[in-house]
Amino acid sequence: MSSSTKQPELDSNYVSPLRVATPYLIAAWIFIFWARFFLSVLPSVGSGDLDRVDVLFIVPDILWNLVFPDHSQNDSVGWSHLAQRIPIIIHALFIFLSAYSLGRILLRGMKLQQSFDVASHTALAGSLGLATVSLVTLDLGYFGILSRTLFGILLLIPIVFETYLWFKERRVKKIQQSVERSKSFRILFAGSIIFLIPMLLGAMLPSTDFDVKEYHLEGPKEYFLEGRVHFLPHNVYTSFPFLTEMLTLCGMVLTNDWFTGALVGKTVLMMFAPLTALGVFAVGKRVANSTAGLLGALVYLSTPWAYRISIIAYTEGAMCCYVIVTLLALLIWLDAAKDSNSTASQRRSLTLLLGLLSGCAIATKYPGLVMVAIPVALTLLATVILRKFPLRESLIMAGIYILGGLVSFGPWVIKNSLETGNPVYPLMYSVFGGEDWNEELNEKWKAGHARPSPVFKAPTAMAQELKKNVVDVALGSVWQSPLMFGLAPLALFWRKREKRFWIVVGAAATLLLVWYTLTHLLDRFWVPVLPVIAVLSGVAWVVVYEFFHTGQHRNSLSQLLIGKSITCLFAVTLVYNFAFMTTDASGYSAYFIDYEVAREQVKPDSLRIAENAMTPGDRVLFVGEAMVFDADLEYRYNTVFDHSLFEKWTSRKLGEKEWELLSAKEIAERFHEEGITHVLVNWNEVLRYRTTYGYTDFVSPSRLKELNDLWRFVEVPIPDEYNLKEWNELAPSWQNEIEAWGPELKQTSQSGQLSMKKYQLFKLDEGQ
Q1: Are 678 and 672 in contact (CB under 8 A)?
Q2: Cα separation of 447 and 520, whole Å?
Q3: What is the pLDDT of residues 282-311, one digit of tens each?
């Protein structure tokens, strides 16, 4: 070849234009995303027209009031009230230490105690142990053995046993972690403690959220008061797998008090947050390095969503934990599968661990089946096929995986089967049927939990929804952090995108896809993806740092200024997140309040009305009201998806939307048998249900008028300040519903304002 046709040699210092432009593209993405995020309106905060910039301006005031709470009006708020939290912390730590010890013992039993670094071992042992305490509580509760003394002894045994084993190991051989590991662990703790403190304080406060008071805490309360775990036909939600709720029941048994025990249970559930952060750190370290893991853990703990699900007794805190620790165990299993030095015994132990953790995810919440268990099973199947595992070994591991899932989730299947005849009650009614359930309730349930547009049947509608949902998840969610989806996509610039990296990306995509296609698109159902996104965000944070602080052009003035600006932006974001999560916008945050005052503050008006009218020995039937956890009185109720007790005790159903009222004698006998002395109707809740899930047409203001001559109850006047809501405050859908269905609810207040009657209270007239 002639010299004229030779290709020119590349300059060794040559840098492609794309490489030069990449840092500026990354910076542009960050600044645009952050601007869009902070200018987004927060619909449920204040008057509904605030954006995050407005909140940003009052961050100094928020932080000042946090450290120096206002107690000028009374002494119900002050640092001195933190002493009331000491018994809560002691009981919660006792339960957690027992669970952690149990988890370590289980890992020993599977001969995995030496297979993990400190962070991985702690996350796996803690999450596995908490599930074990939950199952023990279920088993003892089902047989009616809810003894405080027995629980104390059983919880103490693993602590003593594991402590003995640990000291025995120390005597045999000195256990030392590498400097890097121990240092990383200390940095993780030091960097996250500031976000864990408000989580702990918030978790020790009474709950204000509807679902929590309806069943997350109410179910354990009823089990505790009745001395056993059993079928509650009036509260269908309590037939769900109750992994987290059993920890609350454990707290109630240990304290011998349902209210104090609920606070202990909430505090134990908060422990899932640091376990999740440790899981994020461990996965991030495997995908990239320790720095990425540490930053990912910080991203997770600093997200207001992580705070919110840690102070409220929702299941999502535990679900986040089981998602990330299962992903961690899967990465470890995959490493063992390709390591020629790993033994069949080790692989089988890891497979059992995966099965146990996948079962824990389902026992936390049914969606764990499609979010965790099935994707993990498919990954294992693909791996044994691609790596050409022997058929016998593959079948053994499949059996072990299923066995692990049955051990951790199976007891809930058995419980439901024995109580209702349906292992996944109330789901799959058309296949298994179910006690105290019928086709009408089943259709109502499916309609209330269906996806807005059917999968596959309406692809156009799904596509139209996609843009809105992407914006809602990444930007619009009130408790989101820009460090999540603002950083995560930049992880694709990570220079070492190995198999582990793509598995994490695949896990995030799978979780979001399952949420988008198989759920009814509530925001809490996508929250379990956050720890996986946090891993990618931690990797991306390292990418950004390397581009602007260790890159080839780091000395250029423009990159120096951009890098410093981004660092300041991230720092401001962390401060904003901390301030925002400590406001009432993220949950009840009266950290320094007196417990007695707090207990009254969170009590719904309906319960106050009933308590003021009742005397010892009375019992109220709540109609429409199901948020009854705070009730310190005798009561009966039902949820919107259960049979209406009011309808059942006053009528017989003739057909669809057709009833015949019972005779006065029959009604009196039924109420007498149930010991009902009062009936409180919450029209506010009935209307909410009628405009959403639907509510039995039997319950209406006109029906109460019709019943007036048949039952021995007289209406008790309720003060206007409790009972009236101004008409112009009602949504148009409510106004239209009242006009068509219940015009009797329209009232004129003493000030002449047109209003809606929220409650009606009736008392047994013993003079008749």
Answers
A1: no
A2: 10
A3: 999 999 998 899 999 999 999 999 999 999
Long-range Cβ contacts of 148-153 (<8 Å, 24+ apart): 148/253, 148/254, 148/256, 151/250, 151/253, 151/254, 152/254
Going by C-alpha positions, the residue among 440, 607, 461, 575 that lies closest to residue 521 is 461
User: Do 425 and 358 belong to one domain?
Assistant: yes
Distance CA 328, CA 333 (A): 9
Tell me the pLDDT tens digit for each residue of 320-375: 999 999 999 999 999 999 887 888 899 999 999 999 999 999 999 999 999 999 99
Q: Which of 584, 614, 638 is where one domain is finished? A: 584
Indicate whether 626 and 506 sit together in one domain: no
What's the number of domains the chain is made of?
Answer: 2
Distance, CA of 741 to CA of 747 (rounded, Å): 15
Indicate if 611 and 553 belong to the same structural domain.
no
pLDDT for 695: 94
Is the same domain home to 221 and 338? yes
State which of 584, 619, 641 marks the end of a domain.
584
Residue 594 tokens read as: 């007196």
d(CA 680, CA 182): 59
Residue 601's pLDDT band (boundaries 50, 70, 90)? Answer: very high
Tokens linked to 375: 């994707």
Q: Is residue 502 part of a domain?
A: yes
In a domain, 596, yes or no: no
Let me know whether 336 and 431 are in one domain.
yes
As given in the structure block, the two tokens for residue 285 are 């370290």
Query: Which long-range CB contacts under 8 A does 4-12 form with residues at least 24 apart?
Result: none
| Arithmetic mean of pLDDT, 627-637 | 96
Predicted confidence at residue 183, as pLDDT, reads 60
Q: Which two tokens stand for residue 197?
A: 């403190």
Same domain, 421 and 500: yes
**Alpha-carbon distances of 745 from 3, 593, 725, 735, 759, rounded to whole Å:** 96, 37, 10, 10, 9
Q: Under a CB-based contact definition with an 8 Å cutoff, are residues 289 and 496 in contact?
A: no
- The more confident residue out of 406 and 173 is 406
pLDDT above 70 for 7: no
Q: What pLDDT does 14 receive?
A: 46
Tell me what pLDDT residue 552 has.
Answer: 53
Mean pLDDT computed over every residue of the chain: 90
Determine how many CB atoms are found less than 10 A away from the CB of residue 573. 21
Q: Is the pLDDT of residue 680 over 80?
A: yes
User: 713, 765 in Cβ contact below 8 A?
Assistant: yes
| Residue showing tokens 């349930």 | 445
Does residue 42 lie in a domain region? no
**pLDDT of 185:** 54
Q: Does residue 244 contact residue 134 with C-beta atoms inside 8 Å?
A: yes
**Distance in angstroms (rounded) separating the CA atoms of residues 140 and 246:** 11
Q: Residue type at 467?
A: K
pTM of the predicted structure, to 2 decimals: 0.93
CA angle centred on 18, ends 14 and 23, rounded to 5°: 105
When comparing pLDDT for 189 and 742, which is higher? 742
Q: Write out the H or E segment, with its range, that includes residue 471.
A: helix 459-471
Q: Do 491 and 543 form a contact (C-beta atoms < 8 A)?
A: yes
Does any domain span residue 104?
yes
pLDDT at 685: 96
Q: Tally DSSP H helices, then E strands, for the chain.
A: 34, 10
Q: Is 473 in a helix, a strand, or coil?
A: helix
Helices (H), 472-520: 482-485, 499-518
What's the pLDDT tens digit per position in 98-133? 999 999 999 999 999 888 999 999 999 999 999 999
Are 547 and 662 contained in the same domain?
Answer: no
